[in-house]
Specification:
Blueprint: H1 7-11, H2 18-35, H3 40-52, H4 57-60, H5 75-83, H6 89-101, H7 105-127, H8 131-144, H9 151-161, H10 167-170, E1 174-175, E2 179-180, H11 182-185
Antiparallel strand pairs: 1-2
Helix pairs in contact: 2-3, 2-7, 3-6, 3-7, 5-6, 6-7, 7-8, 7-9
């Protein structure tokens, strides 16, 4: 919760943490899993992968793409240390191994959720006027979207690019092309 994501120092207008990122990845991962035809149980596994996928960063920090050229974080040791002494530590370690190998549909959905969440952060910041975030979004969209592992993730990425980040909730309060029902909006109805 206290570990900021490394892009916060570059993009400047976000307060994203490793914990908030992991939460978003878990929610997106569950939805992607269901969109890809996974059962509730398997989609929950995808969601759990999303929650735990960056847990090592609580110890190693979140290295951005530049830092990774100069620094190597021993995430395997961090995971080993984090899960040592727990009766269920092996289960969590196996879950992260599954995520890292990306062989199961659950792991593919979790990784796609990780990529979509980063795109989403950049997209929202760009709509708020952050020109650097727009540049990152354009680059990540071009480079990451073709590499997404599921068709559902690609579809969501394309829909994101062509929409407004406020649409998902704003449309519930707007009627007839911007005519606001002020009484309902103010809670008087």
């Amino acid at each position: 919760m206290q570990m900021p994501r490394s892009h916060t120092r570059h993009l400047g207008t976000t307060y994203d943490t490793v914990a908030s990122h992991s939460f978003h990845v878990a929610v997106i991962g569950y939805c992607l899993g269901r969109m890809e035809g996974l059962s509730d149980e398997k989609a929950m596994k995808t969601s759990t992968m999303g929650l735990f996928h960056d847990l090592a960063e609580a110890r190693t920090g979140d290295l951005d793409f530049v830092a990774k050229h100069y620094t190597v974080a021993n995430e395997e040791k961090a995971v080993d240390d984090q899960f040592s002494g727990m009766d269920f530590g092996k289960d969590l370690h196996n879950l992260l191994d599954d995520y890292e190998t990306r062989e199961t549909l659950e792991a593919k959905c979790a990784k796609d959720a990780d990529s979509l969440e980063q795109l989403y952060q950049e997209w929202v910041l760009s709509w708020q006027g952050n020109k650097l975030a727009q540049k990152w979004f354009d680059s990540d969209y071009k480079d990451r979207v073709p590499g997404l592992r599921t068709e559902s993730a690609k579809k969501l990425a394309h829909q994101m690019k062509d929409s407004n980040p406020q649409d998902w909730w704003w449309s519930q309060f707007i009627k007839d092309d911007m005519a606001i029902d002020r009484e309902k909006l103010l809670g008087r109805k």
